[in-house]
UniProtKB/TrEMBL annotation:
Record-given protein name: LYR motif-containing protein 9
Family designation: Belongs to the complex I LYR family. LYRM9 subfamily.
PANTHER family: LYR MOTIF-CONTAINING PROTEIN 9
UniProt superkingdom: Eukaryota
Bilayer-spanning residue ranges: none
Amino acid sequence: MAPLPGAELVQTPLQLYRYLLRCCRQLPTKGIQEHYKHAVRQGFRVHSDEDSPERILQIIKRAIEDADWIMNKVRDPLIRLQSFSAPLTLEGRI
């Protein structure tokens, strides 16, 4: 499962950049969002001189997989917390 709809449409570095920044906006806190935005920018700076189409597609595929992993990593603890946040009742305990 992709972190956001449209992952299958990403074919260029610019599309990937915009897609990853949209993923960052889905993260729960500003601190986490800024951390991953910085990582996205750094990744693009490091690979800015890449000119092999095969290598670019490989990087795009891996970046989408990594974004999926990060989104699931962040989402799973939140789901677990939400399942335990239901109020406890003491019915029958008087």
